[in-house]
Amino acid sequence: MLDTAPHAAGLHVRGLCKSYGPVQVLKSVDFSVLPGQVVALIGENGAGKSTFNNIIAGGILPSGGQMWLDGEVYAPHSPAEAMQHGVVLIHQEIRLLPDLSVAENIFLGRQPTRGGRVDRAEMIRQSREILEALGFDIDPARQVRGLSMAVQQGIEICKALLRKPRYVIFDEPTASLGEADAERIFEQVRRLKSNGTAIIYVSHRLDEIKAIADHVVCFRDGVRVADWDGPSVSKEQMINGMVGREFTFEHRAPAPNGDRPVLEVRGLSRGSAFRDISFDLRQGEILGLAGLIGAGRSEVGRALSGADLIEAGEIRLDGRALRLSSPRDAIEAGIVMVSEDRKGLGLSLNQSAARNIAQPWERRLARAGMVMPAAIDDLGRTQQKRFDIRGRMELPVSSMSGGNQQKVLLAKWLVKTPRVFIVDEPTRGVDVGAKMAIYEIIRELAASGISVIVISSELEEVLGLCHRVMVMSGGRIRGELPRAEATPERVMSLAVVSSADAHGGN
Amino acid sequence: MAVLDQTGQKTGATQKGKEKTMLNAIKTVQRFIPGPLIGLILVCIVFSTLSPYFLTTRNMFNIFSQMSEIGIMAAGAALVIIIGGIDLSVGAVLAVTLMLNAWLYRDMGVPFVLTTLAGLALGAFIGFVNGVLSTYGRIQPFVATLATMSACSGLALFITNGSPVTGFPTWFSDITSARVLGLPLEFVILVTVYLVVAFWLYFRPSGRALYAIGGNEEVARLSGINTRRAKVMVYVAAGFLAALAGLIVGSRLDAAHPTAGVNDLLSVIAVVVIGGASLAGGSGGMMGTFIGLMIIGVLRNGMALINVSPNLQPVVIGFAIILAVMLDRRSAQR
């Protein structure tokens, strides 16, 4: 594909470079995408994917190299210029105005007018047309607020497609979506492809890349390090290409010893979130909680960690019944939970990493009722060493990368050795290198005798870490599989059990 | 990427070594001297050249006396703003607690010590109501305290049908002219309040929790902090401090006016904001608030000394607010 002459149809990039001062973020990248082709772009955070996409879409000027679009030299100076050439970039964050209507959002900044006034009827008619063409059945006159993430992402796509682009760059369109919703995005990609649109598709979800891409290009440290044909590439190949070394999900802790359970949960229920949850957790055991998004897994974790009150059931820790009325009670008892929503529920982003780590423990750090700043700094340094956190502990935690933020979050909850450690989506939004470090932390915790519950939507992660897998759907436990029997197929078949034919219980 | 960054910094360092050390020196100085303090020093220099009377001890004490009630209210307001709330009722609380105190003493014949305690208790109670409304009641603090502000200013007028009450015990009106070790008592009270609040805020776990709550309330809750109790406590403190400020006003004027303190609300918020707190919560502190207080005090006093029209003074304060916040944002970005 690299041999294709730049004068042919399609977008061709040769020797593209970008440096900021002495820092080179793109080093002589060659790239081609042809009409009707989907090229996936993969790489760790900071590999240069975003810079590359932004150069193509006119948001960033390159420092060197050349681009050709359908045989003509292409050097856009602004996103507007790129759009005139039919190139659009669909950003990963959704930037819709929630209080405006769907149609107003789609036409934002270029509303059709008649006699100097906005022609609402025309705007709604055109919006309906484009929404229908994309398979979205929503009323264009309704407010955006309240629409699901998938539909909102769809509206973003409509906004971009209104310009009738011939080249579309998707920057992680499914990052915030569940699997069913992601499927709708794939449909749009396939539809565009069949119309002869050229597509560059960025994603961290390697499964979807295999399903959708004709060709896969891998970046590492600003260099194009590998490329494969989409249908034939394996997940391992892609991961190894991104990381530059062997990646594995397998981080197995030694088999748990002792038969006495550390945590006993009996008949736990809370409203419609989950019903009749019962299980045991032994010392040093890693229990996986698998299931689809919305199955009630996080809610069980939240109840065990005192974040939500339970309505019925019993939680016993080391044989003693616990009454959890607040997170404080759970922390005191030794049950802590690392939330899936790092930014919303896990860390105070504008505070320093050290302060974040100290937050649950300030009463313990106090000497004569006083918490000295030095004690917090010390704690920060200790945890930094222990968890290999890269970044400055006294700066706001928002200045760190996703992987290091996640390590700060783990460090926060491991200041005092817990009895039960619950992690919810421990590697979400984290690059592959940090992923392995986090698996290793979890494995070592279990090896040292701490009982761990891993809630994850990544099946490989659950299977690679856990001794035992419990599958939930519709707020109930649908089955339990020891590691040897936990195949992806069996877990999935339990995860999609409907309430009607459920056998429930443990 | 990380490797690239490091090499990049190395070459940069050799090229622009001197500039970097200069910049670093400035940054170090800035870290130790907060931005508002630089502003305060500049304002003081300007006024001391414009008026020979400005830099006298007597005038300095004047400034503190003039600002003591705003200062005491601002200490409470700073706490509220740190947790990401706002208390609009402080001025009205000052008025209603002072009126209750004076009315109970003069018209009901209750001993003055008891009426004073009643005033302070009412302030704490109104704060408690604010706190409960904005936590358990789930009403935005702006709205909740707007309502209590309205109710309190109405009550302050209702108690005596709008007329002021005069004639406190003489020892009470003497308090504001009293001196402790040569310092005006008002100043001593003001500084004591700031030291106590600062100690709580910086060293006590329950005080430090306020920053956590202002930064991200749910994160704080999941970290085991009783966020609702902490928030109610903060509003109680703000109400109590407003009532305390009311006592100082009553002592200085030897009278209770039902509209006392009503105009102080904006100055109180201005003090906290100039002191570097963000209304979004999670930042600010007593040092900054104290400097903010002095900046407003010096501006008011200095402008009076050089005969700037009282009508123009709020204009200057308005500019000072904008300037302070802009400088603060600039230094935060570095």
From TrEMBL, chain A:
Domain ABC transporter: 11-246, 257-499
Protein name: Sugar ABC transporter
Keyword set, alphabetical order: ATP-binding, Cell membrane, Membrane, Nucleotide-binding, Repeat, Sugar transport, Translocase, Transport
Residue intervals passing through the bilayer: none
Organism: Gemmobacter lanyuensis
Organism lineage string: Bacteria, Pseudomonadati, Pseudomonadota, Alphaproteobacteria, Rhodobacterales
PANTHER family: CARBOHYDRATE TRANSPORT ATP-BINDING PROTEIN MG119-RELATED (PTHR43790), D-ALLOSE IMPORT ATP-BINDING PROTEIN ALSA-RELATED (PTHR43790:SF3)
Pfam families, alphabetized: ABC_tran
InterPro entries for the chain: AAA+_ATPase, ABC_carbohydrate_import_ATPase, ABC_transporter-like_ATP-bd, ABC_transporter-like_CS, P-loop_NTPase
MF terms (GO), sorted A to Z: ATP binding; ATP hydrolysis activity
Gene: rbsA
Automatic annotation (TrEMBL), chain B:
Membrane-spanning residues: 32-55, 76-104, 110-129, 141-160, 180-203, 232-253, 265-282, 312-328
CDD domains: TM_PBP1_transp_AraH_like
Entry-linked InterPro entries: ABC_transp_permease
GO cellular component: plasma membrane
Keyword Transmembrane recorded: yes
GO function terms (MF aspect): transmembrane transporter activity
Topology term for the membrane: Multi-pass membrane protein
Keywords, sorted A to Z: Cell inner membrane, Cell membrane, Membrane, Transmembrane, Transmembrane helix, Transport
Cell compartment(s), UniProt: Cell membrane
Top-level division of the source organism's lineage: Bacteria
Protein name, as recorded: Ribose ABC transporter permease
Gene of this entry: rbsC-2
